[in-house]
Design goal:
Two copies of one chain form a homodimer. The first copy, chain A, has 299 residues and is mostly helical. Helices cover 70% and strands 1% of the residues of chain A. Chain A contains 14 helices and two strands, in the order H-H-H-H-E-E-H-H-H-H-H-H-H-H-H-H. The two termini of chain A are 28 Å apart.
Chain lengths: 299, 299
């Protein structure tokens, strides 16, 4: 077997996700034209589609059919996109740019940006429900997926992370709080993406648990390397200015552990992510490759 | 049979809903304390619980068990509450008071208010999914309810209504647009509440359709009488200042049809709502009584 071409895999998968997302919202028209333009603006603003890709990979690794998870893969990207739109709002992180493009409220205004986020979050649950309509997955499994995605996206997950993130700008926080924040803000939805893929793909409880654990460590490694890039990264590759986290008093891993300590922590989480995949065969190649990539990422 | 005591019925049902909602969110503690305080502040700010009560009534009228719909009844109130929190934001309607109390963002700040709304919307879908976990309703029916509630709450329903509402403050709109706005902004979720109750209660397609039609006309009658109260109402009973709609250039029914024309329109919609219930027996008494009440409401 030749070396796995991760770059090609990710770009092929991204294309599958983009194509599926294209069909999720109608072409803007009528009285809601501007709202749908705002929804599509952020949905197609150059996201890497990491959550859908992980969801698809988890489905395949347990022997499931990709078609089964596509609606949920789309839903995960909608939820991720809604969270970015709301996080960027003036009352929140007050960001003018994301991935080198103006943020949603800078283009469409705050009211439309809030509603576009609300629309993406709402519609996501229709797509999850749709996963039960092709007759390949039992509705029971779909309802379980609704529950775990709510837990990951709501006040027990992503929203809790954002609450802590906002508070941490104004007060001193320790490593445990930073970790708690990342596990909730980023890790929860990443883990849920893998869990959902495994459940819909028909995985055993053990397999679902292993993939959830992989997601947990991948999420932390992802965040630590993200913080490292903010210290060391190239503005051209990243689409944001290095040092911007420090300038806003965001508590990052390098600030708490130093650059060397952060690199070490990232390496440990990648190893634990790989350990979690130990029981899977070569079909877990893409997931292993994604984890290893975090240690050499440049953007 | 004595005359049906609507006031007593509504207050008993409100108590059932309040008790069920009490258990939906944990007592605020930990790092998310403030967020959960904000969620509970608006969830228990004196709402009439109309959507849950209609959902429960629709379930009973088709012979279903109240326990079956309680999680969905709670979810409908969460979605309604999220929409009020976001609508009140400075970027939207910029309201300082609702039902005589400070709005969420005036107490907790904009960031927390946005996240509290997001949390309520997200969590609502967990409660809907839970309706499938007691073994009394088939998961297929629950997934259908997810789909119809998304349609009513999202960009094809409530959010579309809010978009038009915001736009109508700055431009001239006709009666058809005002009607379109209300059908989406208020009517869609009211109808969905009745539809969901009928589906979960095991109603036939014909019964589901009848209750949906009742909800459509009830929603319009409700909105027209709401507009009439803004012209004629008593500030003490209403908790908001009469004339406030006109002052903000909101296009109301009295502004478009006159007071007499609006009263006539409300009466017609109440009659059509009652017509939609023609095939039901006395068990539809509460729903008939709610519709008739709109013609004499003082708040």
């Amino acid at each position: 077997m030749g070396e796995f071409d991760l770059k090609r895999y990710l770009s092929e998968r991204k294309l599958l996700v983009d194509t599926a997302l294209e069909e999720c919202f109608p072409v803007p028209a009528g009285l809601e034209k501007r709202l749908l333009e705002a929804v599509r603006y952020s949905l197609f603003a150059g996201g890497k589609r990491l959550r859908p890709i992980l969801c698809m990979a988890a489905c395949e690794v347990v022997g499931g059919d990709l078609k089964t998870v596509m609606p949920v893969a789309c839903a995960l990207e909608m939820i991720h996109t809604y969270s970015l739109i709301h996080d960027d709002l003036p009352a929140m992180d007050n960001d003018d740019y994301r991935r080198g493009k103006l943020t949603n409220h800078k283009v469409f205004g705050e009211a439309t940006a809030i509603l576009a986020g609300d629309a993406l979050l709402t519609e996501a649950f229709d797509f999850i429900a749709k996963a039960g309509s092709n007759g390949k997955v039992s509705p029971d499994r779909v309802l379980r997926v609704v529950g775990l995605i709510v837990k990951a996206a709501g006040y027990r997950g992503m929203i809790a992370g954002q609450v802590i993130d906002l508070e941490s700008e104004t007060r001193s926080v320790d490593l445990a709080t930073v970790e708690y924040m990342h596990i909730h803000k980023t890790g929860a939805l990443l883990s849920a993406s893998l869990e959902a893929g495994a459940i819909l793909g028909g995985g055993s409880e053990e397999q679902v648990g292993s993939l959830q654990r992989y997601g947990h460590h991948l999420g932390l490694a992802f965040q630590i390397t993200d913080d490292l890039l903010d210290v060391e990264g190239d503005v051209q590759l990243m689409g944001k200015t290095p040092g911007s986290d420090a300038a806003r008093n965001k508590k990052t891993y390098p600030a708490l552990l130093g650059v060397t300590g952060s690199r070490e922590a990232a390496r440990e989480h990648v190893e634990q992510a790989l350990d979690a995949l130990a029981s899977f065969d070569d079909s877990a190649g893409p997931l292993r490759s994604v984890a290893r990539y975090l240690l050499v990422r440049k953007a």
